[in-house]
Each structure stands twice: as structure tokens, then as C-alpha cells.
């Protein structure tokens, strides 16, 4: 069959690589893809040009389309494909609102009894500021909508909270995304990412992963889209993962069905293991990045078969390798702030035990050069975490370039601060 993957980053390259292992997949298209996705044929159509993507899928006999990023989902790409009778894996815009609106996600959690932090939603600046008199600090203040990972402030004291509220509700900092805010309890504990294949009330969980959001070693520096990850997370007992599936993923999927927003696709729960058990920090409506890059290499099944089974109502009987995968992101110097593009990628001495996933790259005179903040991820699958990280850093540590940087402690210190993944 022919398969179309929508997106251009490392998450989508990881999906493409996994699909390339399938004997059932003949041709993989990536729209728009990136120059490092050599396993796919690039299609020069932007992710949000839904009409052109529908026409392409028809003209090229695409059997399945898989959506990577969240914006096309929230703009209704799944709805449009379904209206044309085309197979597409992802939630409708109505179901994707679980990611697009933090206030809506909290309402769903309240309805389903899903454990999460205490919260209040505000659209009025004065009311929100008055609410600060009744809270214990620190607190978390979030712009309701998508804000490119920048719409969250962890306020340690009232003045900081006051400034955050005024910046969101009183200004144009986040546009429509900041017209409503959520103020919620600050949760403490160990964080983990838990993704699942979902169709309606059927939930098939993946192994838990742990990612690292801070730019620099020892969880210092600004939040990023993710500087590395590993799976499965060694800090979360299997019993707690099972409990999270039963208390978080399944009730949420069922609540969306009850609301007439049945979810099909990847439901991602950003969780934190508190003293009271796992609670939700946030939901995403698609594969996580960079978690996907370390989870999919451990999947033994044919990814395309899993997707078809899930949508058809069959148990995919998911199997996982008895191994660990670690991945470290190479980013452009200056990221997540301003950075230069167009620099040749660092020369890596990879071996058969490591792999590269490309994200912010393009081709220039036959070579790959940087074209984004997060440029690539170097990963390795090994019997244990120590071997996996050692192999990644054997590849990366010789790199000395003023144009790129990476963390040197991914998965080497496995205790994460509770504030690191708020975004």
C-alpha cells in the first residue's frame, strides 16, 4: 500500500522509519517531510494545506494517511479526509480539542474523574488576580490554547503570578491562545509520558517514556521542545503504569465518546507520579516528540498493522522488545532562542548500534545543513539503559562545533524535577 505521513520533524521521521520496516507498505510519502527522510518520497505540500493533501491522497492511491503534528488535527484535516472517504489515522478536530484547549481538557478530566491538579479557569484579568489571594505558591499559569510550548509560567510568588496573568489576559502575547487561562495546583513528583493507540473506548498503551525539556545539563536553562528521551522509563513501576492506564487513559477516552467526540489516534498523557498516585499534567492528541523517537524503535509489531487493527476494532496484541532505547537531540546553538541556519551537520561516526532521526534539516549542494532549532536525534537500542546511553555518547561526544549543542546527561541522571515538563 501507499502511505502518507504528514509532518516534517523528528517525530514524523521516526514514524516513516518504522513504516519502512513493513512488508505491507510499498511507498511512503512525507508532506512536506525533510531532506533526511530518505525512506520517504517528499511531497512539497504544507501540513496545513488540507485541500491539496486530500487531492494528493486521491491522485496517488494513498491507502492510509498518518498525521504527526497537532495544528492540522485542530484545523480538521481528519474531518476533511473522512468526508472524502479516505483512511486517516488521527482524531477529529472535535476530539483533538483535548490538546487544543487546556480548559476543555480539565473539564473532561473533571467529568471522567481523571486525577489531575486542582484548577480554576479565567477569562477576566481582575478576577484571576483576585483569585491569587486564596492559593498556595508555587502555582502554574497556562494559556488555554496552543502557544508553541511557551504558554506556561510556574509562579513562585504573587508578583510573578500577577505579571503572568497580565501578560496573558491583558496583552497580545499569545493572541487567541491567551484569551482564557488556567491556574492550577503545582504538582510534585516524577514525570513520565504515556502514549496509547486509541479508537473510541479501545485503548492500547505503549511503554512509558521520559523526556528532558530543559535546554542544558542538570535540568537548567529554558524549556525546549525536548532535548532527549529514553524508554521504557525506569523510575515508574509497572503497577503505576497499569494504574495510569486504568485511571487516566481509559476514562478519558470513554468521556470523549460520551461527549460525542470519539477519539481515534494517539492519546498522549503527560503524567506525574505524586504521593497520591499518577496525575495528569496535560494531554496531547498525537505522538510525542522526542518520545516517539525512542518508543517506536522498541515496537516489535508492524506499525501499519497495529493502526489497521486498532481502527478495525481488533486487538493488535502489541509486543515490545526486551531492551531500552535512548536518544539525544542535537540542537542549533541558541535554541530555543534565536539561532543560525544553514550550517553543515556535524560529522558523526555512527555504527550499527546507533541511528539518526532528522528534524530541522534541508539539503544544500548535496549535503544536509541545519534548518531548525532541533536538528536531529542520535539514538541507540541496547539491552539496558547504561549501554544505550554509552553508545549514543560514544557517537556524540567527539562533536565539537560552535553551531550545535546537546545535553550530556540524558538518562544518566534519571530523576526529573517536577517543573521540567510544564509547557
CATH homologous superfamily grouping of the largest domain? ATP-grasp fold, B domain
Distance, first to last CA: 37 Å
Report the radius of gyration as a whole number of Å: 21 Å
Poorly predicted regions: 415-423
Number of domains: 3
Morphology? globular
Outline the biggest β-sheet.
6 strands, antiparallel
CATH topology of the largest domain: D-amino Acid Aminotransferase, Chain A, domain 1
Count of discrete alpha- or pi-helical segments spanning 4 or more residues? 12
Number of strands: 23
Q: What would you say the CATH architecture of the largest domain is?
A: 2-Layer Sandwich
Strand residue percentage = 25-35%
Q: Report the mean per-residue pLDDT as an integer.
A: 94
CATH class of the largest domain reads Alpha Beta
Structural class: alpha+beta
Share of helical residues: 25-40%
Domain ATP-grasp: 106-312
Protein name: Phosphoribosylamine--glycine ligase
GO molecular function, one term: ATP binding
Pathway: Purine metabolism; IMP biosynthesis via de novo pathway; N(1)-(5-phospho-D-ribosyl)glycinamide from 5-phospho-alpha-D-ribose 1-diphosphate: step 2/2
Amino acid at each position: 500500500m501507499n502511505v502518507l505521513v504528514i509532518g516534517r520533524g523528528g517525530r514524523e521521521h521516526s514514524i516513516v522509519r518504522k513504516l519502512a520496516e513493513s512488508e505491507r507498505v510499498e511507498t511512503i510519502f512525507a508532506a512536506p517531510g525533510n531532506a533526511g527522510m530518505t525512506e520517504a518520497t517528499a511531497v512539497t505540500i504544507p501540513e496545513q494545506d488540507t485541500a491539496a493533501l486530500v487531492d494528493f491522497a486521491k491522485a496517488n492511491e494513498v491507502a492510509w494517511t498518518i498525521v504527526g503534528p497537532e495544528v492540522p488535527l485542530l484545523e480538521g484535516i481528519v474531518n476533511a479526509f473522512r468526508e472524502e472517504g479516505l483512511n486517516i489515522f488521527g482524531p477529529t478536530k472535535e476530539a483533538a480539542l483535548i490538546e487544543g484547549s487546556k480548559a476543555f481538557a480539565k473539564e473532561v478530566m473533571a467529568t471522567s474523574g481523571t486525577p489531575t491538579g486542582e484548577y480554576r479557569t479565567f477569562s477576566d484579568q481582575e478576577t484571576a488576580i483576585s483569585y491569587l489571594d486564596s492559593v498556595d505558591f508555587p502555582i502554574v499559569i497556562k494559556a488555554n490554547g496552543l502557544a508553541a510550548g511557551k504558554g506556561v509560567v510556574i509562579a513562585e510568588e504573587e508578583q510573578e503570578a500577577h505579571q503572568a496573568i497580565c501578560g496573558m489576559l491583558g496583552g497580545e502575547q499569545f493572541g487567541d491562545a491567551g484569551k482564557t487561562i488556567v491556574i492550577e495546583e503545582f504538582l510534585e513528583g516524577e514525570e513520565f509520558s504515556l502514549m496509547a493507540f486509541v479508537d473510541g473506548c479501545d485503548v492500547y498503551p505503549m511503554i512509558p517514556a521520559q523526556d528532558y525539556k530543559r535546554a542544558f545539563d542538570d535540568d537548567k536553562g529554558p524549556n525546549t521542545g525536548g532535548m532527549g528521551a529514553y524508554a521504557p522509563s525506569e523510575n515508574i513501576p509497572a503497577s503505576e503504569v497499569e494504574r495510569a492506564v486504568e485511571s487516566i487513559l481509559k476514562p478519558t477516552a470513554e468521556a470523549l465518546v460520551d461527549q460525542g467526540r470519539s477519539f481515534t489516534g494517539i492519546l498522549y498523557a503527560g503524567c506525574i507520579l505524586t504521593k497520591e498516585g499518577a496525575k495528569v499534567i496535560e494531554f496531547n492528541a498525537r505522538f510525542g516528540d522526542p518520545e516517539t523517537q525512542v518508543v517506536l524503535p522498541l515496537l516489535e509489531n508492524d506499525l501499519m498493522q497495529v493502526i489497521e487493527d486498532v481502527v478495525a476494532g481488533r486487538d493488535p496484541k502489541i509486543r515490545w522488545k526486551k531492551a531500552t532505547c535512548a536518544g539525544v537531540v542535537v540542537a542549533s546553538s541558541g535554541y530555543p532562542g534565536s539561532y543560525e541556519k544553514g550550517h553543515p551537520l556535524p560529522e558523526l561516526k555512527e555504527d550499527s548500534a546507533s541511528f539518526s532521526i532528522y528534524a530541522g534539516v534541508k539539503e544544500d549542494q548535496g549535503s544536509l545543513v541545519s534548518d531548525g532549532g532541533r536538528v536531529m536525534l542520535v539514538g541507540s537500542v541496547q539491552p539496558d539503559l547504561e549501554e544505550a546511553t554509552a553508545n549514543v555518547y560514544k557517537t556524540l561526544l567527539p562533536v565539537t562545533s560552535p553551531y550545535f549543542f546537546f545535553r550530556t546527561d540524558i538518562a544518566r541522571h534519571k530523576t526529573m524535577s517536577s517543573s521540567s515538563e510544564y509547557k
